[in-house]
């Protein structure tokens, strides 16, 4: 990733804000690679607490 600036700077006020920012950055890379984007409303379940059904992705 390039040096973040302006609207792309990390949002660090809360864990939720940062998690959403990380997910959006992840999706930006996925778009450039032609990959599927992830629903950022589910970032915490995917990358922090884990899926409720116990699966790994």
UniProtKB/TrEMBL annotation:
<keyword id="KW-1015">Disulfide bond</keyword>
<dbReference type="InterPro" id="IPR039799">
    <property type="entry name" value="ALR/ERV"/>
</dbReference>
<keyword id="KW-0560">Oxidoreductase</keyword>
<keyword id="KW-0274">FAD</keyword>
<dbReference type="GO" id="GO:0005739">
    <property type="term" value="C:mitochondrion"/>
</dbReference>
<keyword id="KW-0285">Flavoprotein</keyword>
<dbReference type="GO" id="GO:0016971">
    <property type="term" value="F:flavin-dependent sulfhydryl oxidase activity"/>
</dbReference>
<dbReference type="Pfam" id="PF04777">
    <property type="entry name" value="Evr1_Alr"/>
</dbReference>
<dbReference type="InterPro" id="IPR036774">
    <property type="entry name" value="ERV/ALR_sulphydryl_oxid_sf"/>
</dbReference>
<protein>
    <recommendedName>
        <fullName>Sulfhydryl oxidase</fullName>
        <ecNumber>1.8.3.2</ecNumber>
    </recommendedName>
</protein>
<dbReference type="InterPro" id="IPR017905">
    <property type="entry name" value="ERV/ALR_sulphydryl_oxidase"/>
</dbReference>
<feature type="domain" description="ERV/ALR sulfhydryl oxidase">
    <location>
        <begin position="1"/>
        <end position="47"/>
    </location>
</feature>
<dbReference type="GO" id="GO:0050660">
    <property type="term" value="F:flavin adenine dinucleotide binding"/>
</dbReference>
């Amino acid at each position: 990733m390039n040096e973040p600036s302006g609207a792309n700077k990390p949002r660090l006020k809360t864990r939720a804000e940062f998690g959403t920012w990380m997910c959006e950055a992840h999706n930006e890379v996925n778009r450039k690679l032609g990959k599927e984007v992830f629903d950022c409303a589910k970032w915490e379940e995917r990358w922090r607490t884990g899926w409720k059904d116990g699966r790994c992705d």
